[in-house]
């Protein structure tokens, strides 16, 4: 066993680091805009069902595979299966590299907005489109962000990742609650809450289902080996099922609370008219500065700056885990020294993010990059949308399907159960039974089917339903 790989110091350390990976731009930036694009509460209901019924068992499998093998995503599949299975890990690493390449650009927006708020520039919301086309400044913020990420990852597990998560996560939680309470006090807040919580099931289309699944995987950091990697640093004394439940609940709660914070703000800004809310990447960036402005110059600056700082913090604990996946691979499998792997990978991924950076208005060919299909309609998307759709809505659910199949039929159910029993703090059976059922039948079938249909509909315009 590779004892010098590092280990989380405590259960809390692991849960906070994994929850830190899960909680990120996905919860505060992406979740609300997906809810807006998916028609409100109906999306929320489907998303929650996916998180608990389909994603939770995949999360448990990932952590168990990681802890059993004490290896990175590629090494773990090789060890439990055979060399032939290394591709699942490689697919995951590829997905992680691509996700981090655009994620870092959005983290640059968040950090840039923080600096704008500090200066009291509330007009930035109206100028969101032109702001993100300024590739020089966003690129610089992205560079800073990647640098800080690399610095934390280079310090290893306990000194870097665990320490950062222990400080950042509780701060984040406190800030969200504070902003949510404030949002509730605003005029028309109820209209926003209603939009968010009262489902209209006629809004559900294939597209809503595919996006909800992709979002569930993205938000829980699943399907690409991040939790295999983090699982490899977990002690055998920890209860994996309980830890996974805590991670899932934390992530879902933060997304849920972020919605409760944002939709009342949006309703306040739109004077209670939610019919025009369409979601999209600009949702929080375009609307919130105007809300903060309404608070008056001093309070507006304080709350606005706090919000975007919070978003940057949330992004940081996620970028750390995204970078750790390829780094652990290079350190374990290719025997590259940690600092070299960290800085080399960070540089490569930053460079891979440049087309995403330029595809928000700076370069026309990357801004209108290609057409694909949504609910049968052709739609022009940018390079960044394309990477996001490929990596998060396609590779992650595909990875989840394959991980479930691998766990149940290659590694085998009894090995999974034996691993889960180590450190298990309760002997209640129903949860184990559900996990077995989900990994063997439910996840491969449902996840597999939705993933295939998503690919057919989105990329080939073949309407299955
Ligand atoms: N879960 C992160 C978020 O919601 O922002 C994004 C992410 C992090 C995805 C790590 C995948 C991953 F491995």
UniProtKB/TrEMBL annotation:
Keyword Membrane: yes
Residue intervals passing through the bilayer: 12-29, 41-65, 85-115, 135-153, 165-185, 208-233, 245-269, 299-328, 340-358, 394-411, 434-456
Main location: membrane
Pfam families: SNF (PF00209)
GO cellular component: membrane
Keywords: Membrane, Transmembrane, Transmembrane helix, Transport
Keyword Calcium (UniProt): no
Membrane topology: Multi-pass membrane protein
InterPro entries: Na/ntran_symport (IPR000175), SNS_sf (IPR037272), YocR/YhdH-like (IPR047218)
Localisation per UniProt entry: Membrane
UniProt name for this protein: Sodium:calcium symporter
Lineage: Bacteria, Pseudomonadati, Pseudomonadota, Gammaproteobacteria, Kangiellales
């Amino acid at each position: 066993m590779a004892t010098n790989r590092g280990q989380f110091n405590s259960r809390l350390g692991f849960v906070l680091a994994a929850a830190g990976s899960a909680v990120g731009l996905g919860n505060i930036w992406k979740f609300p805009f997906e809810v807006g694009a998916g028609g409100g509460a109906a999306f929320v209901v489907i998303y929650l069902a996916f998180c608990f019924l389909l994603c939770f068992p995949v999360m448990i499998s990932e952590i168990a595979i990681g802890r059993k093998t004490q290896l990175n995503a590629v090494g773990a599949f090789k060890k439990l299966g055979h060399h032939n299975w290394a591709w699942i890990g490689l697919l995951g690493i590829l997905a992680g590299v691509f996700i981090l390449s655009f994620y870092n650009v959005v983290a640059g927006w968040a950090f840039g907005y923080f600096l704008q708020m500090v200066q009291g520039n509330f007009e930035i919301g109206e100028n969101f489109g032109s702001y993100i086309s300024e590739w020089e400044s966003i690129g610089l913020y992205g560079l800073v962000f990647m640098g800080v990420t690399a610095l934390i990852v280079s310090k290893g597990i306990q000194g870097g990742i665990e320490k950062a998560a222990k400080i950042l996560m509780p701060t984040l939680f406190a800030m969200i609650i504070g902003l949510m309470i404030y949002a509730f006090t605003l005029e028309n807040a109820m209209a926003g809450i209603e939009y968010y919580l009262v489902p209209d099931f006629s809004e559900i289309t294939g597209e809503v289902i595919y996006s909800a699944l992709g979002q569930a995987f993205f938000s829980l950091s699943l399907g690409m080996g991040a939790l295999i990697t983090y699982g490899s640093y977990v002690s055998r004394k920890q209860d994996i099922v309980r830890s996974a439940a805590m991670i899932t609940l934390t992530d879902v709660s933060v997304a849920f609370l972020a919605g409760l914070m944002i939709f009342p703000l949006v309703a306040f800004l739109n004077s209670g008219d939610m019919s025009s809310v369409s979601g999209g990447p600009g949702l929080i960036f375009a609307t919130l500065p105007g809300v903060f402005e309404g608070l008056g110059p001093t309070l507006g600056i304080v709350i606005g700056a706090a919000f975007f700082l919070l978003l940057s913090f949330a992004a940081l604990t996620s970028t750390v885990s995204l970078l750790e996946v390829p780094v652990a691979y290079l350190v374990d499998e290719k025997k590259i020294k940690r600092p070299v792997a960290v800085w080399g990978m960070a540089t490569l991924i930053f460079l891979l993010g440049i087309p995403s950076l330029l595809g928000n208005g700076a370069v026309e060919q990357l801004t209108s990059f290609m057409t694909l299909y949504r609910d049968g309609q052709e739609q022009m998307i940018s390079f960044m949308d394309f990477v996001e759709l490929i990596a998060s809505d396609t590779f992650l659910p595909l990875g989840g399907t394959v991980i479930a199949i691998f766990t149940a039929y290659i590694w085998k159910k009894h090995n999974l159960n034996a691993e889960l029993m180590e450190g298990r703090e309760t002997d209640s059976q129903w949860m184990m039974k559900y996990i077995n059922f989900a990994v063997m039948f439910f996840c491969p079938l449902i996840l597999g089917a939705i993933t295939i249909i998503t690919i057919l509909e989105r990329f080939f315009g073949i309407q299955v339903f």
